[in-house]
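Example record used in the benchmark description.
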Amino acid sequence: MNKLPDIFSLDGKVAVITGGAGLLGVKHAEAIAQAGGIPVIIDINEAKTVKEAARIEKKYVCKALGLKVDITSKTDVEKAAHKIIDSFGRIDILINNAANNPKVEDGNKAWSRFENFSLDIWNNDIAVGLTGAFICSQVFGAVMAEKREGVILNIVSDLALIAPDQRIYKTEGVADDKQPVKPVTYSVIKSALIGLTKYLATYWADKNIRVNALVPGGVENDQTQEFVKKLTNLIPMGRMARSDEYKGAVLFLVSDASSYMTGSSLVIDGGRTCW
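Model output (structure tokens):
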């Protein structure tokens, strides 16, 4: 029987993290490295991707790789898969983390209102947040299915379970039809990822691939004091999450610690969805 700490081990396992150079992406990569795994950071931002991979490699004394990848291009993702397999011989974990998340917390952002929302922005958001997850799951998932083992983790949001409370984005002195709001694409994409999670969990169950979703709440990221106050009033714990507070959950969901869990969503939101 494994000792309890052993079930959290990722020794030698290769984990691909999309949007890996972003605020949470680097934390997911760190969690992989801290558990003995090999994080592969893929992101459209080449300079930051390479920099973060090198930083993690040095800090955690592990192997790491940073690749510039456009996840909306299947050809690009397939090339990345070949590079990863050439480098490490395997792919064990995929964390679909990439998403567009335009800031609407401050200023006059009437473009975000549903009536004004452009089709171009809709298509681009869907391409990155949903189509990108589909392509990466298809390409990297097929590699895992062939060896009959793997884990896919979709990073969702509490806004997949509840609608945005648009009052927290309200700007004083701005007309109602000019008020900024959380864009419709964010909720649509995050909700759809839960559907993708359930679909793939059942589709690849016979291939020993587990697929789950992590549902985080808002993360501290230099938001205005006014916005933070409005948001934390909606959270029973009375604060936003720190960027490193999801590491334990990520490790649980991609390791053998959650070996009998698939098709599920783990909600970690400070209690927001309880209200």
